[in-house]
């Protein structure tokens, strides 16, 4: 199919990138609409003029991109430089450059396409602002609700219980709470309650004195003492033995504890953030998680949704991990092809974001010369996956219920917020915010 | 757009004559030595291209090859003096006004040698016919035996006469 000149001009005018061509004397022959927009020059003003007089870049004198192509016989891609706009503002651009040949293979001109990096940078900034909240990647409605909640509780010292499946990023939420709260400059101590044997957990949390047990060769402060004035993050809190749960409850209620092997009562001002991935209702029912401790911790509940419920965040998360592993593996892989995206979107992600990260790293290791990740580089379980993803859209608007209606629902469910959330088809985080808006919680 | 650039890349991989365009760029960037190499090569393969010669003369002047410059200058003004006289300083991106300014500032105006006068005569022809004539006349006065200067002056006087015969001519006062 042969295009006439007007047709070609229309095509070039439709591009978002600035495009201009020069003849062999470097006089501008074509200047598209995007180039007009970026530079501020009108097409009629620049046609027939030397490109160096229009762009006024140092590059014109020292490193002309078209001259480079003439010298090296290799096109230039993504070269970053500055040009001057008509208003004499400096515009950072990224350009591609090539030489145009006639039928005798003689160079008769050049073409340069360029992007305004101001736009790209501002887009990057806004995406980052939107997608990266103190290390949490995402811009889905569900995740933005959590961001809002974290902002809202930044002045509070109330305990927080983060619930979510394994790999959903509960620790990142805890980090974000700590970074935004008024204790952010104070100690932030983390402990995974499930990794310590029963007898050692007490020592880890509250400390011990010399001779308290065989290996206690000297006095040692516990995590609560170290965290005094700051925050402690108790991961896998529901895995804690019942005996320890009682001691923890006392710290939460009174702020006091004793080191193992000591009778002196110590005090510490510590804000507690706890997390668990277990089915809390089941654990309460089975008696493996004390109800009084649960209510003491669950002042501010945060439900971190599984990845399958926030698939809007899939692309930002993929991009984040691509950037991360590009640096770690020193590979220039910046994208995932469409078929791979489709495959990743169709998967249920039982291991959540941690599984996604592992998949991206796996594909990264396997991709050697490619610039993008293709489906054949994914683990077999994804390549063979046929499931179709159905997005979850459960949410309520703040105007959906008034206070009286909400009280009715709460009464009907005996003020069990999990049951209310279930009835309304919303997360407990959303419910908590709703109750806060209605003045039903402090 | 990527596909388009890939197509261009394929073309680039073929052997091609690129000296004129690259020479033009060097000339535009005032890299006269590099421009000279490219344009010289191109002039050999394309001896009828007067625009290349016009630039090459300036390159020779700037790289100190005055004999080459004068030889090519005489050849070009014999063939088509208008191609130099009609030079527009901006539209043709002519470096001569700047070169003359720099050259005259570096010289003792009351004591210009024959070589200096020849250089200025050549450069001035791109900007001002009368100024150029003055310089070549001075050069002949300095060294009456200089055949090249006399030849140039003879061609220019013939042109002056031709121009004087025309009404409202823009070059001759």
Write a brief structural summary.
Helix content of chain A is 42%, strand content 19%.
Describe it.
The complex is a heterodimer of chains A (442) and B (173). The model of chain A is unreliable at 387-399 (pLDDT under 50). By secondary structure, chain A is α/β, with parallel strands linked by helices. The longest helix of chain A is centred in the N-terminal third of the chain and has 15 residues, at 117-131. In chain A, the strands form six sheets. In chain A, strands 2-1-5-4-3 form a five-stranded antiparallel sheet, with helices on both faces. In chain A, strands 9-12-15-8-16 form a five-stranded parallel sheet. Chain A is elongated and about 95 Å long. In chain A, β3 (76-84) and β4 form a beta hairpin. Chain A has four domains: 5-122, PAS domain (Beta-Lactamase); 134-305, Rossmann fold; 308-383, Orthogonal Bundle (Helicase, Ruva Protein, domain 3), CATH 1.10.8; 403-437, no CATH class. In chain A, α12 crosses α14, α15 (314-328) crosses α17 (352-366) and α20 crosses α21 (428-437). In chain A, 42% of the residues lie in helices and 19% in strands. Chain B is mostly helical and 173 residues long. Chain B has one domain (19-164): Serine Threonine Protein Phosphatase 5, Tetratricopeptide repeat (Alpha Horseshoe), CATH 1.25.40. Chain B is 70% helix and 0% strand. Chain B is built from ten helices and no strands. In chain B, α3 (32-45) runs antiparallel to α4. The longest helix of chain B has 18 residues, at 147-164. Chain B starts with a helix and ends in a 9-residue tail after the last helix. At the A-B interface, α5, α6, β4 and β5 of A face α1 and α2 of B.
